[in-house]
Amino acid sequence: MSGGPAVRVSIESSCEKQVQEVSLDGMETYVPPLSMSQNLAKLAQRIDFGQGSDSEEEGAEGEPREQEWGKQEPEEDEATVKFQPSLWPWDSVRNNLRSALTEMCVLYDVLSVVKEKKYMALDPVSQDTTAGKTPPVFQLISKRKSLATAAQVLLKGAEKLSKSVAENQENRRQRDFNSELLRLRSQWKLRKVGDKILGDLSYRSAGSLFPHHGTFEVIKNTDIDLDKKIPEDYCPLNVQIPSDLEGSAYIKVSIQKQAPDIGDLGTVNLFRRQPKAKAGTQAWHVKLEAAQNVLLCKEIFAQLSREAVQIKSQIPHIVVKNQIISQPFPGLQLSISLCHSTAGDKKNQRTSPEKPKPDDHLYVLEHNLHQLMREFHKQTLSSVVMPHPASAPFGHKRLRLAGPMAYDKAEIAALQQGEGLLEKIIKQAKHIFLRSRTARTIDSLASRIEDPQIQAHWSNINDVYESSVKVLITSQGYEQICKSIQLQLNIGVEQIRVVHRDGRVITLSHQEQELQDFLLSQMSQHQVHAVQQLAKVMGWHVLSFSNHVGLGSVESIGNASAITVASPNGEYAISVRNGPESGCKVLVQFPRNQCKDLPKSDVIQDNKWNHLRGPYKEVHWSKMEGRNFVYKMELLMAALTPCP
Amino acid sequence: MGVTCVCQVPVAEGKSVQQTVDMLHRKLEQLGAVKQGNFCVDCETYHPVGNTSGQPPKFLYVMHNSETPLSCLALFEGGPCLTADGNFDVLMVKLKSHFQNSKGHKVESRGARYQYCDFLVKVGTVTVSSSARGISVEVEYCPCVVPGDCWNLMKEFMQSFLGPSVPELPSVFAAKPEGLYAPVDCSDTMTQYLELFSKLRKQQVVSGSSVR
Questions:
Q1: B112 in A contact zone (CB under 8 Å)
Q2: Rounded distance, CA A44 to CA A77, Å?
Q3: Contact list, B72 vs chain A (CB under 8 Å)
Q4: Selected residue with higher pLDDT from B56 and A525
Q5: Which domain holds residue B189?
Q6: pLDDT of residue A30
Q7: Do B114 and B28 touch, CB atoms closer than 8 A?
Q8: Cβ neighbours, 10 Å, residue A298
Q9: Does the record carry Cell wall biogenesis/degradation as a key word (chain B) (predicted)?
Q10: C-beta contacts of A82-88 below 8 A and 24+ residues apart
């Protein structure tokens, strides 16, 4: 199959027929082949029938032999045929015939000699009588022997058959075990120690530093009766996990209002249902995953308790049994507990069913704890990333460069600054709590106070430590003109930053009351702003406006705000004072000429003084018609505006 | 890291080194500087072993600065400067056959570190083999990296507590062309310290003979 150019080689059969003649144009004319009888006749012509049959010499034969011996017919008389031996195909036949002829000749001679009775006589040959007769004992023995041999052969065959059947079974089981082992091998780390197969379910290869060995053993499941039907969930492979990793575990993170008795501590024992195994997963896989989860939970808890003991905080963290208690805010406690249930515990729980408690488990924080742990793993893994200078200490690459790059103290401190798991989770818990409390405060205010209305728009995209909400304070039916109060609340870990629409920033602490008071004061301001906006629309003139009035009764929350507007023709004026606590007070100033009871002054006698402003009269606001403050105000303004 | 100037402050007439340092501290505190811990700059001298050529031996100085705690500087006098991490000290032990540590040549400057707004002031007592020889003052102006731009300001600031003994622009900067000061490592600072130390070491002989 070389790649060279193909050379065409033509092959044609050798010419079997004789060429009679070649014509001038190259055509060859063949001699037609001889028929069978013609061939026979041709061959027969060559036989010299005159040669004597009894002459044994073959040397006289000098005839050239023909090629087509195969066509020779065997019916020729053997005596007449005399040919050179060895090359003739019928040579053996001829030889046998010749020896038969010799025998016959000898027999003929013997018979003729015997016939003469002169030289030879025929006698019967005597036979041995003892040879034929065998004693019956021997017969019996030989029979038994042969029977035993036959039985043995049969037994051996039967044994072989049963063995092969058993082997088949065993083979199938073995094959199943091996395939299962292969599957296990593809998902878990395995190694062979002695005659055992050990696996590793720890997170050490992922960067974990937890000292638990996390080893499991792979066992061949043999305690099954081969004769019985194999149950459906039978698996030839079983895993043995360490006893302390059995069962299921999870980390419960919850925030409680009041501290429970110290006697209750450390006895958190809440269980969740076992997650249902997905179809198609092996029993061992479920088992191993559960064990690995237990291991991770234990690692997280160990890390948290270590940090809880190490970290110095104002209020020390308490670690009791399987619970860590911290106090993020006064009067509030964050409890992180490791709930580990084994099969034995579950039975106990079933017998004494507890009253189901409200589930205050913060799933988000549990998830975040897992995530933080894995991040921590990754960090330790990446710190020993190769290639690494042989002389340099292990650690973060930037820290390694700190020496040669001559980092100063501040830079090194910035590199080393790393928060622990506990600090992070406490911060997150604080934020979550602050967020939910803010939401509750806003919602309760919104449901309690109908006028003005509060709308809260929560942003969907949050950081673990920060989220924001936009609060709008509006009046029903006047959303388009009263848009003065728009607050952006950035909820952090410890405090809430309020950004006003005009850019003012107010920082509120985590106290619920602060936010509530602030919102109340904003709502009261909103009403006055609404009057201002309404005056613009109605064509009234704003005479004075103040967000923080220094006169009048002192409010416990914030300051009262006030506005005075004058009617388009200047005859009437409305003065509104609105305080978060004292509520609103509306006064209308009448023109002087409309007041009859005014004492006549000596000084202002002239008619022109009639245009001076007169006294104020308070409006019974609650008796005003209208569904909300702004609507009432609109009606009042409309009433005081003279018809054109 | 900004522009740094290291200078020697002469011991006041009729006062000990410690008294002069205390006086400087008092002056700084009166200005409003805040004390922020201590600092330490040390310098070890190595001399080459097996100097076959007839040239005078070139000393190798290994210096540490508490400001860059993980680093270690190796300088030849007026020659190249190397910044390395702490393992360099271990390496020098291995290089014993080439560089021998000159015992008794260890120079150290220890003292207090003051912060005054953007200035960092370090007043240290220079000791050569545990006997006080002089006073070093390091002034760093953190926000700037171009010596020419802030030298006058620094000079004025130094005048406020050093009085008339204000140094000229350090030769490290004067030798450099106009442009950026290399703030990445503290080699310029350490070169100045090295100059100061060598000056004090040479002085020691003179002053020692004159005093005693």
A1: no
A2: 12
A3: 403
A4: A525
A5: 3-42+106-211
A6: 81
A7: yes
A8: 19
A9: no
A10: A82/A51, A82/A53, A82/A55, A82/A58, A84/A58, A85/A58
Tokens of A276: 């249902």
Nearest CA to A471 out of A456, A493, A481, A458 is that of A456
Task: Give domain status of residue B112, yes or no.
Answer: yes
CA distance A417 to chain B (A): 16
Residue A293's closest CA among A382, A201, A375? A201
Tell me what pLDDT residue A14 has: 64
Percent helix, strand, coil in chain B, to 5, is 35, 35, 30
Q: How far is CA A41 from CA A44, A47, A288, A422, B120, in A?
A: 5, 10, 97, 120, 138
| B185 located within any domain | yes
Alpha helical stretches, state H, A311-448: 343-351, 363-383, 397-401, 409-416, 421-448
What is the average pLDDT value for chain B, to the nearest integer?
83
Q: What is the pLDDT of residue A358?
A: 55
Using CA atoms, how far apart are residues B162 and B20, in angstroms rounded to an integer? 11
Closest Cβ–Cβ partner in B1, B85, B91 for A408: B1
Q: With CB atoms and an 8 Å threshold, state whether B69 touches A406.
A: no
- Phi then psi for A625, rounded to 5 degrees? -80, 150
The bridge status of strand B107-116 relative to strand B119-128 is: antiparallel
**What count of residues does chain A have?**
644
Confidence band for B207, pLDDT divided at 50, 70 and 90? very low
Report which of residues B110 and B85 the model is more confident about.
Answer: B110
Q: What is the pTM of this model?
A: 0.58
Q: What is the largest CA-CA distance in chain A?
A: 213
Give the H/E segment covering residue A175.
Answer: helix A136-187
> Is B146 domain-assigned?
yes
Inter-chain residue contact A408 with B87, CB threshold 8 Å: no
Domains held by chain B: number:
1
pLDDT at A348: 46
Distance from CA of A414 to the nearest CA of B (A): 13
Give residue A490's pLDDT: 93
Rounded Cα–Cα distance for residues A86 and A495 (Å): 123
Residue B82 belongs to some domain of the structure: no
Distance set, CA A190 to CA A184, A201, A239 (Å): 8, 9, 12
Cα dist from A304 to A248, A268, A381, whole Å = 19, 17, 20
CA distance A499 to A484: 13
Under DSSP, is residue A295 helix (H, G, I), strand (E, B) or coil?
A: helix
pLDDT computed for residue A113 by the predictor: 87
Bridge partners for B101 per DSSP? B46
Q: Pick from A404, A405, A409: which is nearest to B69 by CB?
A: A409
Cα B119 to chain centroid, rounded? 17
The domain that holds B38 is classified in CATH as 3.30.310.180
The residues facing A395 across adjacent strands are: none
Sketch the domain layout of chain A as residue ranges.
34-49+67-120, 187-349+358-383, 424-512, 525-597+606-640
CB contact at 8 A, A628 and A477: yes
Q: Which residues of chain A have pLDDT under 50?
A: 1, 55-76, 78-79, 261-269, 271, 346-356
pLDDT of amino acid A355: 45
Instruction: Determine whether the interchain pair A407/B70 forms a contact, defined as Cβ–Cβ distance below 8 Å.
Output: yes
List of residues 6+ apart from A491 with CB closer than 8 A = A431, A434, A435, A438, A466, A467, A468, A469
Q: Chain B: residue nearest A407 by CA?
A: B68
Tens of pLDDT, residues A175-199: 678 888 888 888 888 888 888 888 8
Q: Are A432 and A253 in contact (CB under 8 A)?
A: no
* Res A126: pLDDT: 67
Q: Do A412 and B84 touch (CB under 8 A)?
A: no
pLDDT bucket at B180, cuts 50 / 70 / 90: low
Average pLDDT of span B132-156: 88
A524 vs A576: CA distance, rounded Å: 11
